[in-house]
């Protein structure tokens, strides 16, 4: 799952995604469903704005992990939302990207294949630090091992408010700018 993306492969996936979106619009126009076309266009605008916000946070390694996650053949679908437009100066991008890679791999390992698994990440950048709100809805094959992974220390990251329910996993990831020394 940790594929080394070159520019051509990246552009191939982007082009494929855009072609799918255009075909959705064309198909709904052919079916004379202008309201559905408007919904699709609004979804595209929202998604593109979120991609721009993520790209502008000044954490390129972490942003790349999120941008390509749905191309990595994970057993979950990722959605994210950037709720702060403040740059993440002082946030250790490499640490955040490494933890995110480990988390995605671990979640994929314990997610039931081909189930309706969704991962939602809400990103907040504040003066005092950086916070992720993580919400997984789906089926885990081994929730105890997933729970153990989330309790392992990882550099300057603090995982807080970890909750596991039957088909939901919730937690927060916090990185304090003072602890990173930046």
From TrEMBL:
Q: Which domain of life is it from?
A: Bacteria
Molecular-function annotations in GO: phosphorelay sensor kinase activity
This protein's name: Sporulation protein
Q: Which organism is it from?
A: Niallia circulans (Bacillus circulans)
């Amino acid at each position: 799952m940790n594929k080394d993306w070159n520019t051509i492969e990246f552009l191939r996936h982007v082009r494929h995604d855009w072609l799918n979106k255009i075909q959705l619009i064309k198909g709904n126009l052919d079916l004379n469903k202008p309201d559905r076309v408007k919904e699709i266009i609004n979804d595209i605008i929202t998604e593109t704005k979120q991609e721009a916000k993520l790209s502008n946070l000044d954490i390129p390694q972490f942003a790349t992990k999120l941008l390509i996650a749905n191309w990595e053949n994970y057993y979950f679908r990722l959605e994210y939302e950037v709720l702060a437009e403040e740059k993440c100066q002082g946030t250790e991008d490499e640490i955040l990207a490494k933890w995110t890679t480990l988390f995605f791999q671990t979640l994929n390992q314990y997610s039931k294949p081909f189930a309706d698994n969704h991962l939602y990440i809400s990103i907040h950048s504040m003066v005092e630090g950086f916070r992720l709100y993580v919400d997984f809805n789906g089926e885990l094959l081994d929730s105890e091992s997933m729970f153990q992974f989330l309790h392992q220390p990882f550099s300057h990251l603090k995982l807080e408010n970890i909750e596991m329910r039957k088909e939901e996993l919730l937690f927060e990831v916090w990185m304090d700018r003072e602890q990173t020394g930046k």
